[in-house]
């Protein structure tokens, strides 16, 4: 393939010759390629809706595989023998699900059967390519249907075997009650609005982490109790496992863990200590956290009052929401306080007092620091 660069602002065009593929020994790439005709090139492609050519001179679509009819009927169908198409390139299994979910198409029964038969061969494909397909599925508005189709195709148990604990064979639709962990998962995924990948992945993993099976808090704890002043960190066993398996980015792992860890506090925000909540609301990725918790709240109890409370706080003037600290570590040095771990504790205590409006000036902050300093 070569890329032709157009004039400035015109973009670029990828140009490839028509080719014939040799066998795929590695289940991903042809052993060799050779030149051939347009029709034979179309016949070696994956799905009929991807096997269409456009003639820009005659302004017409050239269809050797019945792709136009499948587009009209809304079907993702393999070209030729679906088992052979999947054998040639295992990534096509994920692509089939992504196309069907994105366009709200049906997956052709023979194609689905071929995917189910070879689902466990997906491990041949690199983690990076698998993650790239899953990213596209999870950030698209059709993400809930995409995950449901991954499960039906037996691909979800390969990329996320822990999901079997949720009994994902249960039927689901937008009208179904969110009365089981699996249905809650799909409802929350559907409820998300333009999520980042970290938000969508947190929603997918949520019910598995709150079940207590993978180190998270129990559902009862998350629903019925106020978190302590400092929430216990979520044991990141499952997010870390997925991170390693899918070769994700560090910031994606950090984002997922924080979303799962801080959800209980945000959903009890009005009862939390303001200094604790304030630090979360002014931290990076706060909007991700609020969007994620809103979707969870809408599904679990239908009330977003706590989320609204957070948004009201976020709308405060900057001087009230996040006023500059009254003192720094340099001020503690000038007071003659020895450096060490106590600095962080002192600065946090003074900051808490400032946010709670118990002090308002630098002199008051210094006085409090001297009083609290270790003797």
Short description:
The chain has 20 helices and eight strands. By secondary structure, the chain is mostly helical.
Sketch the topology as an H/E string, one letter per element.
EEEEHEEHEHHEHHHHHHHHHHHHHHHH
Number of strands: 8
* Main sheet makeup: 2 strands, antiparallel
- Helix percentage: 40-55%
How far apart, in Å, are the first and last alpha carbons? 73 Å
Q: Classify the beta-strand content into a percent band.
A: 5-15%
> Mean pLDDT, nearest integer?
89
Q: What coarse outline follows from CA principal-axis ratios?
A: elongated
Low-confidence stretches: 212-235
Q: Name the assembly state.
A: single chain
Order of strands across the main sheet: 1-2
> How large is the radius of gyration?
27 Å
The structure class reads mainly alpha
Number of helices: 20
């Amino acid at each position: 393939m070569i890329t032709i660069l157009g004039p400035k602002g015109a973009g670029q065009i990828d140009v490839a010759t028509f080719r014939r593929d040799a066998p795929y020994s590695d289940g991903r790439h042809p052993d060799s390629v050779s030149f051939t005709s347009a029709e034979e090139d179309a016949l070696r492609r994956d799905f009929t809706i991807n096997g269409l050519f456009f003639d820009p001179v005659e302004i017409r679509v050239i269809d050797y595989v019945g792709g136009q009819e499948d587009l009209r009927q809304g079907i993702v169908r393999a070209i030729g023998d679906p088992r052979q198409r999947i054998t040639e390139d295992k990534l096509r299994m994920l692509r089939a699900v992504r196309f069907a979910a994105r366009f709200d198409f049906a997956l052709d029964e023979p194609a689905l059967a071929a995917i189910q038969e070879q689902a466990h061969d997906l491990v041949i494909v690199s983690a990076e390519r698998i993650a790239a397909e899953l990213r596209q599925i999870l950030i698209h508005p059709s993400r809930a249907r995409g995950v449901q189709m991954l499960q039906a195709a037996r691909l979800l148990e390969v990329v996320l075997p822990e999901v079997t604990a949720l009994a994902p064979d249960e039927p689901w639709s937008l009208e179904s009650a969110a009365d089981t962990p699996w249905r809650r998962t799909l409802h929350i995924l559907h409820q998300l609005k333009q999520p980042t990948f970290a938000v969508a992945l947190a929603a997918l993993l949520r019910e598995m982490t709150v079940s207590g099976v993978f180190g998270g808090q129990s559902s009862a704890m998350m629903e019925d109790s106020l978190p302590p002043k400092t929430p216990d960190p979520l044991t990141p066993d499952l997010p870390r496992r997925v991170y390693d398996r899918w070769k994700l980015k560090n910031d994606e792992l950090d984002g997922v863990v924080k979303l799962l860890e801080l959800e209980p506090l945000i959903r009890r925000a009005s009862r939390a200590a303001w200094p604790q909540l304030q630090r979360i609301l002014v931290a990076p990725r706060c909007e991700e956290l609020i969007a994620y918790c809103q979707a969870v709240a809408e599904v679990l109890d239908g009330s977003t009052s706590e989320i609204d409370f957070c948004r009201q706080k976020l709308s405060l003037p900057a001087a009230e929401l996040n006023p500059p600290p009254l003192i720094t570590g340099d001020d503690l040095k000038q007071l003659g306080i020895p450096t060490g771990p106590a600095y962080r504790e002192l600065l946090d205590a003074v900051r808490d007092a400032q946010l709670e409006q118990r002090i308002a000036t630098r002199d008051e902050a210094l006085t409090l620091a001297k009083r609290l300093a270790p003797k």
